[in-house]
Amino acid sequence: MIIQMQKAKPRIEELDFLKCAFITLMIAFHLVYIGNTYPVAKQLVYTFHMPGFLLVSGYLFNVSKPWAALGKTLLWIFIPYSVMETGYTVMASLLPIREHIDHLTPGLLIDHIFLHPTGPYWYLHTLMLCGACYYVAFRKPRGRSVRTAGTGKPLIPERLISLENQMLTGRFVLLALFLWLLSHGCGLLSTANAAYFFAGAAVRQMVGDFRRAFPVSWWTLPLLATVCLDPGHYHKETFWGACIVYFVICSLLWIYSRRIPQGLKRLMLFIGRNTFPLLLFSPVFTILAKYYQPLLLRAEPTGMLFLAVSVGFAMAGSFGITWMMDATGVSRLFFGKNGLNR
């Protein structure tokens, strides 16, 4: 018997570029000094960076895999998420940080892991919930063919297209209902965050090619600048906030289409392929940044040197931890595979 190996689908480099931009901004504005010194910039970045991440995540989430593969995917998100969320919660009970916890109890810890995460790991919690809902809503039952609609006879093309559109609409309604129940009924999700994941899934199911949904053109830059003139638009839950997310993605794709030096391009795509360890470990290094912050601010008071050094330190440190886990085999227990996608 000959076993045919399926070729891995080629990565969409533009999505890795977007993920690199969003994760870099996330790390930058997790630095307390930068956020406090430049609050308007922070508000603008918070309008689009994680919504953009969720939109890309909704687009990339695979709902065609078997149930066992879905369980494996969610398991190897949950294990590192629960470890890091536990560590962050315990640390918040010991250190005088903004999200300080006065009395940590086992019940509170369980609540933070399973229901209401604190700190920067909420994205992984949201991803698991939204991904599971998406999978259940779009998973096709075995043994049924849309082409026969259960009648055993092939349908004419017009009828087939109509039936497929009806089924697709029904699946989107079911997904919207699931997400609405988790956000409004259970309070486990932010409605805005769920909506951006939903938008990414809609692009995947209805458009197909991500690049077709976001035109690559210079004219999105002046439109983005115009919308950003009013800080009142800096809210991801509003229409103008959604416009900012859209124009930012279009503008970044246009920038990617320009001539980027190959060395910088390879670095950015590597970062975009490996955002998971950055999401997990970078908070450790943004917290440590406060210990060398005074030294760098004395040398350069605007904070730009501190920003550049701290973002580089967080990325290098996160990849260093992941590389050591790969080298020692710990990644197999923590990620279920090697942590770095080379």
UniProtKB/TrEMBL annotation:
Keywords, sorted A to Z: Membrane, Transmembrane, Transmembrane helix
Residues annotated as domain Acyltransferase: 13-323
Protein name: Acyltransferase 3 domain-containing protein
Organism: Prevotella multiformis DSM 16608
Any coiled-coil regions, as ranges: none
Segments traversing the membrane: 20-38, 44-62, 74-97, 121-138, 172-199, 239-256, 268-292, 304-325
InterPro entries, per the entry: Acyl_transf_3_dom
Pfam families documented for this protein: Acyl_transf_3
GO function term, MF aspect, one: acyltransferase activity, transferring groups other than amino-acyl groups
Keyword set includes Transmembrane helix: yes
